[in-house]
Prior knowledge:
Elements: E1 2-10, E2 14-17, H1 18-25, H2 29-36, E3 40-43, H3 49-64, E4 73-77, H4 88-96, E5 103-106, H5 112-123, E6 128-135, H6 137-140, H7 147-150, E7 155-163, E8 169-178, E9 186-187, E10 195-196, H8 198-218, E11 229-232, H9 237-247, H10 258-261, H11 268-279, E12 286-292, E13 296-304
Parallel strand pairs: 4-5, 4-6, 11-12
Antiparallel strand pairs: 1-7, 1-8, 2-3, 6-7, 8-13, 9-10, 12-13
Helix pairs in contact: 1-2, 3-4, 8-9
Amino acid sequence: MAYLAGFGHYLPPRVVTNTEIGARAGADPEWILNVSGIEERRFAGDESLVDMAVKAGALALTSAGVSARELEMVIVASGTSPRGFPGPAASVAERLGAAPAPALDLPMASAGSLFGLVLAARLAARPILVIGAEKMSTVIEREPMEKGVAVLFGDGAGACVVHPTRGLLRVVDSELGTDGAFAEELKLEPGQPLFMNGRSVIMQASRKIPAAITTVLARHSRTAADVPLFLMHQANQNLIDRVAQSLGVEPGRFYSNIRRYGNTSSASMLIAASERLAESVPPSPVVFAAFGAGFHWGAILTETHA
């Protein structure tokens, strides 16, 4: 048994509007909003991926009432590490004061933080810190800027402490999947612009996310109608609405902040969770879900724990 004990997030202060990014990518601001639900996003500038991860991680530790020295492990999910190795996890753990606890990198876009939570929940004998951090601005600014891709992304970091004995949400079950047949449909080659077959990504995500959610709920004799809150990777507002429609629930059950932050890849689900759970204790159950390059996807069923 494991619990999600505390959350934190960090977003850089620089706001990049649709007007600004649209002028650079050759896209009309209203078109960007219509196809994605995004009005603005954050760019980190001189702040590094590690800087953002450390800030989010420190807030999650404080929220959970856990010190870095208590951690069994630090897991950092990111698809935008600036070098092949070492990944950011070692530097993040050292700066937080968690060394010599092992630090693990998950080089996964979009679904990385969800996979990290599942891994931590299955491993945790002591608290484990899971962080999703992305500096997408360094990727989307590579020429040539493709308007259907460059306008979608932003920078940020989200974090969660997974605790073996206490926390706000108890992890009940999870469902993960991978299909490498689609590995070429969404990829980032070294030094190259991000490539995305948007039609394929939306089609597969709109099928696989509801299937994972339905599967994990069915194992516990529940349906989507029983879930008051879904915390999903913030890829695209139209995708979020499609998933809600497929599950037969109103879109308002899916917390959304994509309008303000854009798609922050593996950071987005934890940023959304940190924001929403800071507002109030949600009713049970709460479902987390994500889909990303690989293709990788999954869902986590949690219950409010008093």
